[in-house]
């Protein structure tokens, strides 16, 4: 354990974001050993199911701004062989936030997650090719049909973006649920001339 963490642990014992238990050394810095092992891995388009510890990692990043969980997310990606194979040599295109929401949050979680995946997928690179051209409602509060309506025509190629249509373009989001958001992002890339498009996320649920 690094000296800084050991010193902090005397006064602020690190707690698991999922169960609240104390964390000992291991591959996950924000999950205890039990929660780290209980992650439910799935096949692409996601690494894990959006439940239990995986859900808590996403919520900690998005709503509690705990960027340190990105190290845990990267470790999860390292165990998702099929997702690494899909992302290798691909252009990773994060789902964009609106400028207002990004200012409020201070970051785009999809972009940070894409960077975590790029660190483990050989040849992958992150390129923010898309922009959200109108505000949409928070998707978590909507049903399937309402989500589809909310994000329709909400995305376009970002100003100044240059697209090479040859490589696979992999649209990256934190969570895929109905697929409405990533499908509308894919439509924007198709309109811009992209030939090969797929989608991926940290979690699916």
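Q: What amino acid sequence fits the structure above?
A:
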């Amino acid at each position: 354990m690094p000296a800084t963490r050991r010193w902090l642990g005397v006064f602020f014992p690190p707690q698991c974001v999922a169960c609240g238990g104390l964390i000992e050394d291991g591959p996950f810095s924000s999950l205890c050993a039990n929660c780290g092992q209980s992650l439910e891995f799935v096949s692409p388009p996601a690494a894990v199911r959006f439940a239990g510890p995986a859900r808590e990692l996403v919520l900690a990043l998005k709503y509690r701004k705990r960027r340190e969980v990105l190290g845990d997310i990267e470790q999860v990606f390292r165990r998702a062989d099929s997702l690494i194979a899909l992302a290798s040599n691909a252009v990773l295109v994060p789902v964009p936030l609106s400028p207002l929401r990004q200012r409020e949050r201070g970051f785009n979680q999809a972009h940070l997650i894409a960077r975590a995946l790029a660190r483990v997928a050989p040849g992958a690179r992150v390129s923010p090719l898309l922009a959200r051209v109108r505000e949409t409602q928070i998707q978590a509060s909507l049903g399937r049909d309402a989500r589809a309506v909310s994000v329709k025509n909400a995305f376009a190629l970002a100003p100044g973006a240059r697209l090479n249509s040859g490589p696979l373009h992999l649209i990256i989001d934190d969570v895929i649920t109905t697929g409405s958001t990533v499908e509308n992002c894919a439509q924007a890339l198709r309109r811009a001339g992209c030939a090969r498009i797929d989608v991926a996320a940290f979690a699916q649920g």
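Q: And what stands out in the fold?
A: Confidence is low (pLDDT under 50) at residues 1-11.
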